[in-house]
Amino acid sequence: MRELTYLEPDDTTEAVAAVSGDPEAAYLGGGTNLVDHLKLGLATPSTLVDVTGLPMDTVEVHTSGAEPVMRIGANVRNSDLAAHPVLRAHLPVVSRALLAGASGQIRNQATTGGNLLQRTRCVYFQDTTTPCNKREPGSGCSALQGYGRYNAVLGASDACVATHPSDLAVALAAVDAVVLVQGVDGERRVPFADLHRLPGDEPERDTTLAHGELVTGVELTASPASRTSTYAKVRDRASYAFALVSVAGALDLDEDTVRDVRIAWGGIAHKPWRATVAEDALRGKRLTEDAVREAVEAELADASTTDQSAYKLPMVRNTTAHTLLTLAGQAGDPR
Amino acid sequence: MTATPITARSMGTSLDRQDGREKVTGHATYAVEHPVDDVLQVWMVQAPVARGTVRRVDAGAALAHPGVVRVLDHESAPRMPADDDRDLEYSVLQDDRIRFRGQVVALVLAESSEAAREGARLVRVDYAEEPHAVTMDDAEAYAPESGVNGGHETDYADGDLDAAIHDSAVVVEQTYTTPHEFNSPMEPHGATALWDGAMLTMWDSTQAVHAMRSTFAPLLGLGEEQVRVLAPYVGGGFGSKGGPKAPDVAAALAALAVEGRPVRLATTRQQMFSLAGYRTQTVSHVRLGADADGRLRGVGHEAISQTSGFKEFAEQTASAARMLYAAEARSSTHRVVPLDVSVPSWMRAPGEMPGMFAHEVAMDELAVAAGIDPVELRVRNEPDVDPETGKPFNDRRLVECLRKGGERFGWTGRTGPTRATDGDWWVGTGVAASTYPTLWMPGNTCRIEVLDGGRYAVSIGAVDIGQGARTVLTQISADALGVDPSAVDLAVADSDLPVATVAGGSAGTGSWGTAIVQTAQQLRADHGADPEVGVHTTSTTEEYPDMEAHALHSFGAVYAEVRVHRWTGELRVPRLHGTFSVGRVINPVTGRSQLLGGLVMGLSGALFEEGWRDPRYGHVVTQDLASYHVAAHADVKDVQAFWLDEEDPLATPYGGRGIGEIGIVGTAAAIANAAYDATGIRVRDLPLTADRFLG
After folding, report:
1. Residue B11 falls within a domain, yes or no?
2. Class of domain A225-327 (CATH, top level)
3. What is the pLDDT of residues B89-128, one digit of tens each?
4. Residue A149 with chain B: CB contacts under 8 Å
5. ipTM for the assembly
6. Cα distance from B118 to chain A (closest Cα, Å)?
7. Is B661 noted as a catalytic residue in this protein?
């Protein structure tokens, strides 16, 4: 048995101090990912700092401004958040993304903060008998020439072609969430787009957080687009499978013309991929299937695929078009 | 005496599952849950190379780890008796050769599962690695010398196939493939084992307690009386537990190494992918030639599969093509490619499942090419006698299954792809035939003793692997004795009980049930209708079905409705109906469950299951249930199983035939054919994933 220290801190300051002061320490949230990693030998922390007892388990709704603002505690369970009436009314894309993930039992256990920090499901990352730069920097990337069905097609590097597995993160990227983070030097607000990073030559780093920084919550501000939003997850199995490709879409139309649009993709890159090029191409234009396809094409200009991942390009084109046309009331039934 | 047909009283009724309460309340103790004191946990260390030798095992760090008690390697593990013919799959830790990646190279015994696992991580093994051959292109295919699995001939030819194809008005020649598929029972393989110095007792997750004993005794240098195997509850097997696998052997070796202390070995899900057998990938070249009216002139099926280089397993992929339809010329062959991989093995309907996918998709292609309704095409090719043997069939009712199943499903006939749409979905329907041979195994022994109060103790070493054996054997016993099922005390799943054959080949119930009927009839013949308490009779089966007189098979028709999302390519199966001719169904609840299980497993194979072997490393890297998908509840919609109301006294004295496997057989083809009907896209390679249907 590999021994470790288990701590239940009294407050976030104590938690942050405990992890920041020990390079081998890790936070424990719902444990749906980390506990697997302990068993598989992927993670070998000296200390687990259990943050699930900390008072970050509520959803506050502030309605004083022009739009409702939700402050979601990092410990709010995925199933509770998905059912929140304000979220469902003002940011349905987030609720739907949550419900598209994992299984009922896992959603009951998994936390908001933990969901964002889950690690890739690349089969080589999870297999300690094969090289993986993310698990063991410098050992090589097995996925580049290996099993590639789930590989990234945008923003990958020679060091890593893994994708981020979270559904929630894709929705949060689309609605410009702000991540609330506490470190030893105090709190900071991280725009969602800046939380996750591309692999570059440091694929072992999933996020821009410093060791010991604790996600305490997520702040969401509703918008006209977020009220007309949805999440489409394409997968082989009808449930309980990671996305081949997923699309978080939000749309605000002035008649046929796009006033605001948000597009984020899952299953495409090392981080939730906010398709800003496509969004810019669509703003101010009439929303048609051709316009969406043209915009998506521009976003995919730098895509790189193999025989095994080439399907993702037509899949993300089609799914993005279907998602936006559905939001515009121009396409058939939601799936 | 030989058994004679019996009258149904309990049979045909839905007697409650006899072990249902224990299972749903969690009181059923599976192999690794058997309560023992002072147990040592065993963890397997696996080779990370596909071919080579073990140079050195350094167990120092592992042994220094708190809780680790012993480390066994190929030098320190208990020795098996010298045997040049020893089955190398069972030859665990007996030499330094690495034959496949994932092979067991050491065992760590520890006071806790956690300590054993950490100990396994700390064992340092040096390997001399050699180049490996792990893909179908890496080695030459050969023809298995002693036939293929299931007792079929390697090659079969009747008539001149080339001439028949040449003379045909309509020809289909295509190649179909199926990937590696893995048995994924809810209970992974595992065992609790105890060697007390004289007796090895194993509580094992197995489909065959006596086969385990008869394999283990000579393997371990013990007498049969020194080995006892019990399998009180088994959480599914599907063939993977039909014989010993390396984890069973490892548990026995560990027990022998620590006399007096019980050991426990639980296989992880990941380890199942290298140590529990699998359905090998198959490649089928199918040639069908027919007259303009669809009457087949020639049927050709050349099948290639993969085997391990050190133990041959040849999937009988082309066997069904020999007997399914009438044609003047039929040829089918099997070839295997020997590789440095783990040993393929039985997985629900080995041969029939991948072979009938190929054959029944080809028939659908023929129907389209000839412009004939696919049901009508099959009806037109119905043979009068078994094309393979020339014998009359016991009771061939494929046409009735097709007709009745089609009526229930709402099949209206067609001559080309429908390509119907419903909103964003393309919608189609498909059909395929199913068949499975009726196997029967002699040598089953049953003992019946008369108890107080009109009760009977019925004993036979059968195993209930979830298929409902405890329940249906109780019903067969009751009807054979002419008593209420509540008067039967059935004992199974212990090698100390009379000898029984495997729960496999859809032959368990038939083979065991015949022994029960025969023994009950012998008891009545010897002791009359009102025997004294304490008298007992034991008898062993030698024969029942007349295999010389009849070709015994079961048949079925599977109908599927498929929806393919025209934007995303996702494929869903809202309806899947199977109609089967299987003789008498002993218990409608457990029987339906078996057939539904087969249909669902067929759906799962059609849509999801694919083990991806990395050619560089040699192992299957999709080795957990997140990356190797099996059907989830959301995938299982309107799945229904029906059966013809019939009995078949030619097959068994209680009139039933095996039902464990036929449900899976035609299912993947029916779904692939429905996907073609919906989209016009013909997929010849399983699984039918979303990327196949993207425009």
Report:
1. no
2. alpha beta
3. 999 999 999 999 999 999 999 999 999 999 999 999 999 9
4. 612
5. 0.96
6. 5
7. yes
